[in-house]
Specification:
By secondary structure, the protein is α/β, with parallel strands linked by helices. The protein has a single domain, classed as 3-Layer(aba) Sandwich (Rossmann fold). It is 51% helix and 14% strand. The protein has nine helices and eight strands. Strands 2-6-1-7-8 form a five-stranded parallel sheet, with helices on both faces. A three-stranded antiparallel sheet has the order 3-4-5, covered by helices on one side. Strand 4 and strand 5 form a beta hairpin. Helix 1 crosses helix 9 and helix 7 crosses helix 8. The longest helix has 16 residues. The radius of gyration is 16 Å and the shape is globular.
């Protein structure tokens, strides 16, 4: 098992998932999309008619539901990769992600998933460098202008993205913030391969020191 982890943080639409996938592909490492885990849990809660604001109910669901993200997102064996990006999920996922007991459960799962990979893991999310993997091999914080991030999201306007930024950065449980030792990359106007290559080079430079 490998303890090598590239942790990538950043706000919505900064390019975390796309860049992380590209980096993992270049290195031949595993990829873990933690945001998809929260989306999948939210999707399941909405499908069951649960109140996402009910902390006890959501914590119970988080501890019992079977989630996978490798290679695709599934909930209790059902592939939901293409169903977790709906506007309904977009609106509710920040509430679910702000639940401290849900986050505790998800962090435990995320660490276990990474530890089980035979090679290194590229992990992306909004508290990866500060909470989930504070001792990651390499920490990256991606950012981009608001209009660029809204354009990338496609199904969300600037108001929706800004609202998620506010919720994610001010929540009491594991708020989004830049780790002091993170390598910051502004992805505005840059293509995925260029950003991915810079991260790979950063890993190589760290590994050689």
């Amino acid at each position: 098992m490998s303890e090598q982890v590239i942790a990538i943080d950043g706000p919505a639409g900064s390019g975390k998932s796309t860049v992380a996938r590209a980096v993992a592909q270049r290195l031949g490492w595993s990829f873990l999309d933690t945001g998809a885990m929260y989306r999948a849990l939210t999707w399941e809660a909405l499908g069951r008619g649960l109140d996402v604001h009910d902390e006890d109910e959501m914590a119970a669901l988080a501890s019992s539901v079977v989630l996978t993200t490798l290679p695709r997102v599934t909930v209790n064996g059902r592939d939901v990769e293409d169903e977790i990006r709906s506007e309904e999920v977009n609106i509710a996922v920040s509430v679910v992600a702000a639940n401290a007991r849900v986050r505790s459960c998800m962090v435990e799962r995320q660490r276990a998933m990474a530890a089980a990979q035979p090679v290194g893991t590229v992990v992306e999310g909004r508290d990866i460098t500060t909470v989930v993997f504070p001792a990651a091999t390499v920490k990256i914080f991606l950012t981009a202008s608001l209009d660029e991030r809204a354009r990338r999201r496609g199904d969300e306007g600037e108001d929706s993205v800004a609202r998620r930024d506010e919720v994610d950065s001010t929540r009491a449980a594991s708020p989004l913030r830049q780790a002091d030792d993170a390598f910051v990359l502004d992805t505005t106007g840059r293509n995925v391969e260029d950003v991915a290559q810079e991260i790979v080079q950063w890993l190589k430079s760290r590994s050689s020191t």
